[in-house]
């Protein structure tokens, strides 16, 4: 194992959030950082880089602009460097194509020497005698390294969640929507495909399948079903004042709420971020309308308020038992393939779980306690900070996973590492006041 000279911070995981932090720190030679990622290159939601899909935030929500609009790794400079500034100008769309955002981040990562790909973090522990963290990694070739760092930035991201009913062994494909793009050709060979979920990912999968479903295939028995346990296929909040919950102002307010109340609050805020964009809903509706002219079968059936209870493999086909949540009635449906757009969750690495209770303080639910400055509260009085990127939303509110919040969070982290307020943080980012009004 090779020992690497001590650094100031090691970032674990290189998604957009830690990549943005690496970009901000690159301008400051006094802070030595290394960022480690097990993938061989930057890739962002590979399975959902579908043609025609865009980010759901404006192009200003890149890696750096909201913290430093003059940064050389901004999206506008990326366009300039690739001779796409004028095409984007006439593209006349605030939202970036998803495939281009992925390419932009890869371009940025290739210019940052601190980013090390193809290197997986295997263990992290705290050396109290030295007052620093020991990080062990292993490359794809099996070569091991050990880093010594005063601070950590944990940006391991989320992983796809599959309900228990989707974990049945079957010859027929049952997949998470995160795999959709990679397995779309396989789905095209299936007569009956069921998509389950009511968020943007589900809608994009349905639209992609529906676009490929010709009237001839429908006449031959092909069909798509779209099922959700939600009351309907609703849009996410996209009004100008409604979007202010994705601002530093709301995040600051959220931290003023007693911690024990935050989980209940975010449980009722699903449609702020879990719904479907107006444009995708419109595209699906328009296709149904056009293909149902003259009483024709469009080939797409939408079922709301229906919850899947069980999936069985019956002679190579999938039989779904579902229950209508309001009527209380149950029935079955069959399909040749299921796409489960059932969301993502935090799967903290084992080494992180081992830090809980010994290095990191936890709450009554066993979760680490992420403070307003994005540090995890320590219980050992040790030196060094553990910064948490995109903690679960009950820690910081619904804006925690938002790309537009990330640069401000990274600016807050960078200022702490620099020991001075180098990056200007917004004093007021929302017109509305979330707390009590002071006369």
TrEMBL record:
Swiss-Prot/TrEMBL keywords: FAD, Flavoprotein, NADP, Oxidoreductase
Pfam families associated with the record: Lys_Orn_oxgnase (PF13434)
* Pathway membership, UniProt: Siderophore biosynthesis
Cofactor dependence is on: FAD
SUPFAM superfamilies, alphabetically?
Answer: FAD/NAD(P)-binding domain
UniProt record similarity statement: Belongs to the lysine N(6)-hydroxylase/L-ornithine N(5)-oxygenase family.
Q: Which protein, by its recorded name, is this?
A: Histamine N-monooxygenase
